[in-house]
Amino acid sequence: GENVEQHPSTLSVQEGDSAVIKCTYSDSASNYFPWYKQELGKRPQLIIDIRSNVGEKKDQRIAVTLNKTAKHFSLHITETQPEDSAVYFCAASIGNFNKFYFGSGTKLNVKP
Amino acid sequence: GAVVSQHPSWVICKSGTSVKIECRSLDFQATTMFWYRQFPKQSLMLMATSNEGSKATYEQGVEKDKFLINHASLTLSTLTVTSAHPEDSSFYICSASGTPNSEQYFGPGTRLTVT
Questions:
Q1: Residue to substitute from A6, A89, A98, A102, interface B, most B β-carbons within 10 A
Q2: Which residues on chain B are in Cβ contact (under 8 Å) with A100?
Q3: Is the torsion defined by CA of A55, A51, B44, A28 positive or negative?
């Protein structure tokens, strides 16, 4: 099956700085890459996603880039705020099976 | 957005008993539901994929006789942990999707503790 690796496992930034989280995947058939934010004890919430026919997508302070050749994708958060503190998971989905394989997660801490 | 509920939110059971967890899509028809297991401070591990009216597809290493999944309707899937043991204690989260290769909507999770 698909193997998704995520780095770093923890990330601490000062409020206002940018944060970047990187993921790699193994299966070239993967074509959908969502990013989820999970606050402690709560359900994961989709924050942004990208499909394999697109190289970059942006939504306000959040952007995702995808490099199909290198099989990696990244989440970029600009102007970080304390409420951005949470665990972020990347995932990859193969074809039409819609099965998500998640990365190991990144705990982001935004210091005020 | 779409809403997915889970019941119960937490359950404590004795070793050897069985526990059923329900996952419901409240405002959309979920052609596919997924069951994940999440250990503290770890990622979501996909256990099985459930399509309405057909048998669930289990990921490698997941015992299908231990984790029984039923997807009886387009809005309900159940996970039954049979003959539970302390090592089955975990956070179980379901998700639902209406269309292939699209967002999965997650339930709030069920914390299972087996004593």
A1: A98
A2: 34, 44, 46, 95, 104
A3: negative
